[in-house]
């Protein structure tokens, strides 16, 4: 069989078909590499690109098929043989390149060089491959067999590494190589260009290329597309919304659930901005954590986003989609709609709150109940321990409340409890705890108790509050309360004991005839009662001026003869029933209640009047020392009040007045004291520090205070001369006074030894029983006369 006249047409078709297939192989492998990542196919693809070029050159140098003048059968055959040799080499080395990290550029360069060498050799030095009339040369036949040999080796390696390739590639490559061997064998054996062997050779070559193209199309395009289609379906059946965005935040994909969740059409979503579509308007894109994650290509885990407009809450997880190891091409967002779970959580939270409230609060009065009270008591104990404070626990029980319930019904009873509880709320302070114990029992925790009177006052207020008539509809009801009080830490440091004790005190109050309060410890009831009684007595006493002033002389011992230099005014209360009450029993109470201001003004008035009188009589009592309470000094009208007293009692020079202020009082707020005392000093009144050594004076303040005398506290004098510590202390105070340029006076001097010690150490001013106790004015007058 001969193809004769149509050979050129057939040859052109066969060769150009091979060229197109080769180009197809190279283009497909190159452009699908980004997702196939198949370096084996990429290698073959690159090789077939250059094979296509060489095959074009082979065709173009074939006589009768050439476009240019250059044609020569040896050139054309040389192109052919070397192209096939190149092709066989590519097929042989391809299995070894499957994992090799070769550089595309280097490979392209290598193939370019090989191609160029083939071109140079074929065009310029074509070896003799065909002799007109004789046929193929031995060289040509030898090279063809060599190519067959390479292809046989290729078959071996393809088989050896068969497991490394997909079934399609594996089979296609083997078939393709076998067909190429057959093609080469045909081209080695043919003698006549138009003969059947040449025809068969081209058909085998055609088939070998075609099979290779098929395999590449299947693995590089069909399979990935099928996979993509499959994953697209899978992606749509994912029960969570999934949205893919590119790195600029434009939506590229959104699955069915995502579209349903946001109520959007796919056409309106794809290509639009993710932030605009899916995030609340209130969030600025620059501050949106999801958008930041997209922009930075960073993982974002379990970010909760609540959209108030849509009433939805969703949990977002974002992970980068990488096109290769280093560059992020977009982000995959998996969204879990947790709106329902959130609503449930909120409901459970609310129910928990309600339950918690019901556990801790009384439903009728909304007051803390027994449980919460115990908790508050626990806190009160911790706080009191920490700050070294006291607190009181009051248990309040309404008297004969049962009768109201029995006669008027529980509804009225409930209203009475509510009214009483709001009265209690008005009576107690914000910081105190009021609780309903159940039934008609209430409890109050009064924290940081400063004085027993404060507890007394609160209990008394509650008793009075309970007694006020209650108006409910047409009923006017009268109730009363019995209160039991226990004190922390005096009675106990344990909550349950404190509760037990306030309970038993409350029963005692019931036994005592109801409508009263009792402390758990009976003495405390007595102390509290007597203090409160004294408080009201003291108020009356100040109003009735039931006080006398005693005077205690102050002596200067610096000369041979002792000289009277002053008198300290010391008040006594002439109680109508209890007789003369000493100041230590009522001065602290007067200070606590603020009555000291009025009391001291009264003493000042009486003492200044008396001393002025003595001066008028020509006597010289020296300076009058008045005790000045801090509260007095801080009264706005204090200076004016002194002036008025002085003016009222006639003339007494202010230089005859001295104020004694205790060290501890002065150091409480020295800055304010300095200002006020300076005014007194400017008036010519002397200031001395009383009870010096018992407070904690700051030396810097001592220097700044306008004080001219220190009074050594009698507690130090008492230890003189026996107690070494007192000796050191007294000496130090005297030295300090000298260094500060102040006078010094010792009080509480009872013995000659004490007086001598003081004298020897430089303290010449003395006050004490050694000379005189505080004495009434008549006796004082005699004392003054005896010292004139
Ligand atoms: N704010 C006011 N305080 C006043 C007033 N009157 C008195 N007081 C203060 O009351 C405290 C007790 O005073 P009193 O019972 O009068 O005792 C004074 C002296 O009797 C006592 N003293 C003096 N010498 C001796 C002694 O040798 N032995 C001894 N056992 N006691 C002695 O010292 C008290 C004087 O103290 P002081 O004032 O510190 O100089 C007392 O703190 C008074 O200050 C008043 O009108 N207003």
TrEMBL record:
PROSITE patterns: EAL (PS50883), GGDEF (PS50887), PAS (PS50112). Residues 389-522 form the GGDEF domain. GO terms for molecular function: cyclic-guanylate-specific phosphodiesterase activity. It catalyses: 3',3'-c-di-GMP + H2O = 5'-phosphoguanylyl(3'->5')guanosine + H(+). One of its GO terms (biological process) is cellular response to nitric oxide. SMART domains: EAL, GGDEF. Keywords: Membrane, Transmembrane, Transmembrane helix. Residues 241-282 form the PAS domain. Residues 531-788 form the EAL domain. It comes from the Bacteria. InterPro entries: Biofilm_reg_signaling, EAL_dom, EAL_sf, GGDEF_dom, MASE3, Nucleotide_cyclase, PAS, PAS-like_dom_sf. It holds the Pfam family GGDEF. The chain crosses the membrane at residues 16-33, 40-57, 77-97, 109-127, 139-157, 177-197. NCBIfam families: GGDEF, sensory_box. PANTHER family: BIOFILM ARCHITECTURE MAINTENANCE PROTEIN MBAA, DIGUANYLATE CYCLASE DGCP. This is EAL domain-containing protein. It comes from Candidatus Sulfurimonas baltica.
């Amino acid at each position: 069989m001969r193809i004769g006249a149509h050979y050129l047409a057939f040859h052109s078709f066969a060769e150009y078909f091979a060229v197109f297939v080769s180009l197809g192989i190279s283009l497909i492998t190159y452009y699908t590499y980004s997702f196939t990542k198949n370096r084996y196919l990429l290698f073959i693809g690159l090789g077939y690109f250059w094979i296509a070029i060489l095959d074009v050159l082979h065709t173009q140098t074939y006589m009768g098929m050439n476009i240019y003048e250059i044609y020569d059968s040896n050139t054309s055959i040389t192109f052919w043989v070397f192209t096939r040799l190149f092709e066989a080499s590519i097929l042989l080395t391809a299995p070894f390149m499957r994992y090799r990290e070769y550089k595309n550029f280097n490979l392209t360069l290598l193939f370019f060089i090989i191609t160029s060498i083939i071109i140079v050799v074929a065009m310029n030095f074509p070896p003799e491959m065909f002799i007109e009339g004789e046929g193929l040369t031995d060289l040509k036949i030898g090279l063809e067999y060599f190519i067959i040999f390479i292809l046989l080796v290729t078959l071996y390696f393809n088989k050896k590494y068969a497991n490394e390739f997909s079934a399609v590639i594996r089979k296609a490559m083997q078939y393709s190589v076998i067909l190429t061997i057959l093609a080469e064998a045909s081209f080695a054996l043919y003698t006549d260009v138009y003969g059947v062997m040449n025809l068969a050779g081209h058909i085998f070559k055609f088939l070998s290329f075609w099979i290779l193209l098929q395999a590449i199309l299947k693995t590089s395009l069909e399979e990935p597309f099928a996979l993509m289609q499959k994953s697209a379906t899978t992606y749509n059946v994912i029960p969570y919304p999934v949205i893919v965005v590119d790195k600029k935040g434009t939506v590229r994909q959104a699955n069915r659930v995502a579209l349903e969740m946001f109520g959007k059409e796919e056409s309106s979503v794809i290509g639009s901005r993710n932030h605009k579509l899916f995030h609340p308007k209130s969030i600025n894109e620059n501050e949106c954590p999801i958008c930041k994650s997209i922009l930075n290509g960073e993982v974002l885990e379990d970010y909760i986003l609540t959209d108030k407009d849509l009433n939805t809450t969703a949990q977002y997880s974002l992970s980068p989609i990488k096109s290769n190891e280093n560059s992020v091409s977009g982000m995959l967002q998996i969204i879990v709609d947790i709106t329902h779970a959130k609503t449930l959580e909120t409901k459970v939270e609310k129910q928990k709150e309600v339950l918690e409230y019901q556990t801790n609060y009384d439903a009728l009065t909304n007051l803390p109940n027994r449980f919460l009270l115990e908790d508050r008591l626990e806190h009160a104990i911790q706080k009191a321990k920490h700050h070294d404070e006291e607190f009181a626990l009051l248990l309040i029980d309404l008297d004969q409340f049962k009768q109201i319930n029995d006669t008027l019904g529980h509804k009225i009873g409930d209203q009475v409890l509510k009214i009483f509880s709001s009265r209690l709320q008005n009576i107690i302070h914000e910081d105190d705890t009021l609780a309903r114990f159940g039934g008609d029992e209430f409890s109050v925790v009064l924290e940081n108790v400063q004085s027993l009177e404060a507890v007394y006052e609160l209990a008394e207020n509650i008793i009075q509050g309970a007694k006020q008539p209650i108006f409910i509809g047409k009923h006017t009801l009268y109730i009363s309360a019995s209160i039991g009080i226990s004190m922390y830490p005096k009675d106990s440091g344990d909550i349950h004991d404190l509760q037990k004790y306030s309970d038993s005190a409350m029963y005692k109050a019931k036994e005592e005839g109801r409508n009263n309060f009792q402390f758990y410890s009976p003495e405390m009831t007595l102390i509290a009662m007597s203090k409160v009684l004294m408080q009201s007595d003291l108020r009356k006493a100040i109003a009735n001026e039931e006080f006398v002033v005693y005077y205690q002389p102050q002596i200067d011992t610096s000369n041979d003869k002792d000289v009277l230099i002053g008198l300290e005014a010391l008040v006594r209360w002439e109680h109508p029933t209890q007789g003369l009450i000493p100041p230590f029993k009522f001065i602290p109470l007067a200070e606590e209640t603020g009555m000291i201001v009025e009391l001291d003004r009264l003493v000042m008035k009486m003492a200044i009047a008396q001393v002025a009188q003595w001066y008028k009589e020509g006597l010289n009592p020296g300076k009058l020392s008045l005790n000045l309470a801090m509260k007095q000094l801080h009264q706005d009208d204090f200076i004016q009040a002194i002036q008025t007293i002085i003016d009222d009692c006639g003339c007494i020079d202010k230089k005859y007045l001295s104020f004694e202020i205790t060290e501890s009082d002065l150091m409480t707020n020295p800055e304010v004291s300095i200002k006020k005392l300076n005014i007194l000093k400017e008036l010519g009144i002397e200031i001395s520090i009383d009870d010096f050594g018992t407070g904690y004076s700051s030396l810097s303040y001592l220097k700044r205070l306008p004080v001219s005398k220190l009074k050594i506290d009698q507690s130090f004098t008492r230890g003189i001369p026996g107690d070494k510590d007192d000796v050191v202390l007294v000496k130090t105070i005297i030295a300090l006074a000298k260094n500060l340029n102040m006078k010094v006076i010792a009080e509480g001097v009872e013995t000659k030894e004490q007086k001598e010690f003081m004298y020897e150490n430089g303290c010449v001013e003395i006050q004490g029983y050694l000379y005189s106790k505080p004495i009434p004015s008549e006796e004082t007058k005699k004392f003054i006369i005896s010292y004139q």
